Structure formats: C-alpha cells, structure tokens
Amino acid sequence: MSAHERARQDVEAGDYGMARLRLGSYLSSVGYDPATVSMLARICWDMGDPAEAGRFWLLSEDVGPDVDAAIEAFVRRAGASPAQLLSALPHWARAQKIGDYPTSVAARLRGLGIEGLQIATISRVPARLRGVAPWIVFWAIVGPLIAFCAIGFIQTIRWLYSIVP
Q: How many domains does the chain have?
C-alpha cells in the first residue's frame, strides 16, 4: 500500500496528524513530488493550519482562493525576504533548482523574489567546510578516547607488574 493510500485511510479515519506525518516522511525520502505536496497542503488546510498549508501549496500547481489565502498566510509567518522564505521551505524542497519545478510553481517562486537565488546553493555550512566538518567532529571525539584508552592500558600494565613478586 502506498503512502498516498495510507494517508487517505488516515484522513478517512479522522487522523489528520498521522496523514500529515506520513506524507512528510514520504517527501523526505523521495524528494519533491507535486501530487504529494498538493495532498499534504490540503490536509494542513483541513487541519486549520493555513500557514503550513501555504508552505506546501507554494510548491504545488494548485490554484484557487484557499491556495492564495494559505500562501499569503505562509509569507506573513515566514517573512517577506526571499532568504526568509527559502529557509522556511521544507528541506527536500530547498534541494531543488527553480527550473526543476513545474512552470506554475517556478512562476510563484519568482513572484516572491526568489528568481535570482538558487535554492540548491543556500546552505548554512560554508562550501569549504562541507564534507570536512563531520571528520573534525569525529576525530575531536574519537582521538581523545583513543588516547585515554592507551594511557589507561599502560597504567594497568604498570600496576599489574608492580603486584607480581
């Protein structure tokens, strides 16, 4: 059974929260999918969360008064600058380039001033540290542990030799 079918079952059972969680997890694993984004936006709208619905409807091809109202609520909550809007988008959406979206979605993003920014290039980690930072953290933790184990081993051997007559 697909994530969409399970989410529909969750909605029919009145469990909107589970449907929302299920579709969000699905998008995190597969990336951008217009049909799933649209379904997730509708669930958020039905839950009474227009700003969250707008967050997803911004990335969908849906149109209508509900969609426009939700997107406006999202923009008010996230902030008006393109950088603020981008940081409020889901992580799986920020990995896209504007040209990879359907034409109507790209037009919406450009209408909010996101034209010149490449969504895929925005990152809090400087480019020179990408790929390096995890190794620094690893050795900052593992290095002292290895040193302490070696010192402990040497001290234990010295202690054992001191007891032997």
A: 2
